[in-house]
Amino acid sequence: MPKRFPPCDSCGSEDVARIIWGLPVPPKPGSQMERDVNEGRIVYGGCAISGNDPDFRCKACGHEWRQSPNVDR
């Protein structure tokens, strides 16, 4: 079962993706990472990392936000 991410703090949607920052290595064919990317549970945020980048993106409204300290990474 896929890990559930926190709902969007803007619209409340539970259709949320984790944002991966940096220059990721392409996922191995057939891996869980490849399935997560293909199914939209993981999206790439870009290779420039500021240290204040959002952790999640709402697929319903596009809102991005940082993880609260009490949510497991």
The largest sheet, given as strand count, sense and whether it forms a barrel, is: 4 strands, mixed
Parts with pLDDT < 50 across at least 5 consecutive residues: none
Distance, first to last CA: 17 Å
- The shape, in one word, is flat
Q: What's the mean pLDDT score? A: 89
Rg for CA atoms = 12 Å
> Biggest sheet: strands side by side, in what order?
2-1-3-4
Q: Helix and strand string, N-terminal first?
A: EHEEE
Structural class: mainly beta
Report on this structure:
It is a single chain. This protein is mainly beta and 73 residues long. The chain has one domain. The protein is built from 1 helix and 4 strands. Strands 2-1-3-4 form a 4-stranded mixed beta sheet. It is flat, with a radius of gyration of 12 Å. The model has no long low-confidence stretch (mean pLDDT 89).
Brief characterization of the structure:
This protein is mainly beta and 73 residues long. It has one helix at 32-38; strands at 16-21, 42-46, 56-58, 64-65.
Record the SSE blueprint.
Elements: E1 16-21, H1 32-38, E2 42-46, E3 56-58, E4 64-65
Parallel strand pairs: 1-2
Antiparallel strand pairs: 1-3, 3-4
Q: What would the keywords be for this entry?
A:
single chain, 73 residues, mainly beta, four-stranded mixed β-sheet, 4 strands, 10% helix, flat
